[in-house]
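Chapter review: from sequence to fold.
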Amino acid sequence: MSDKQPIREGRFSAIPGIASLTLEGRDAVAFAQAQFMSDVAALAPGHWHWSGWLTPKGRVIALFALLKHVDDTLQVLLLDADPTAFAAQLQRYVFRSKVVVRVDAGVQPAGAFVAPVDASGSRFAAGDDGGLELDLGTALQPRTLRTGVAAASDDSAAQAWRQADLAHGLPRLPHAQADAWTPQQLSLERLKAFSVKKGCYPGQEIVARTHFLGQAKRGLVRLQGAGVASLGEVLPAEGERALGQLVCAAGDEALAVMPLEAGDGPFLTGGLPCRRVPLLDGLAR
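The token string follows.
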């Protein structure tokens, strides 16, 4: 595939795998600050950034875009995880906090490869109809995500959207990959998705120690090839010992966790050759 996805001018299609949740109440920000890996307290109203929730051992349970509407209302656009199960797990840690966690039923995000009308970078825009507009694009590849817009399903458009996510280093983790990787192994510093300075949250000690002691040995590698959909091991072209593990794929585009010194290949995935290509920048918020 090319680095630039097909442009569907003005055409919004349903983007599967994204669910919406709301955290609302006096303690919403404090609760999220204590649970999520990003610096929620530093997020200004009307803005969003990437974030995630970790196990106590520092493994990524889920990734999401976190939006702050006002000081007592946050919105989570959850990627690929079950929203009901996620909300139920999160609710276990509410205790006496004044916060309500709810799944926003019926919210189906839609996306198009067009520049946003009002949103820009980390600033989202709210429409009069209650829908939202987010800028998920770059200078070379504009993309807009909207909620509150009726849009038909389009498999090719959905795959192009997911391929763009992977090309820019945004992992789209299947259920089997939950709890498997640390933020550094998924190279989430590229998206500014976690903080090592804000204080305690589940997994923070491991994340901070890895960061400050320089112990990250593996990170994301972008691969292209016909065999990446196997989500199996990445092997050297000659040899049987695996170098890494594919974690997500869309068409011939994939992300793998591999040693930082893995080199440029050639590699095999699913018994077929694949090539390493550079990760694209521009999705950090």
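Two observations follow directly from the output. Residues 215 and 248 are 24 Å apart (CA to CA). The first strand starts at residue 13 and ends at 14.
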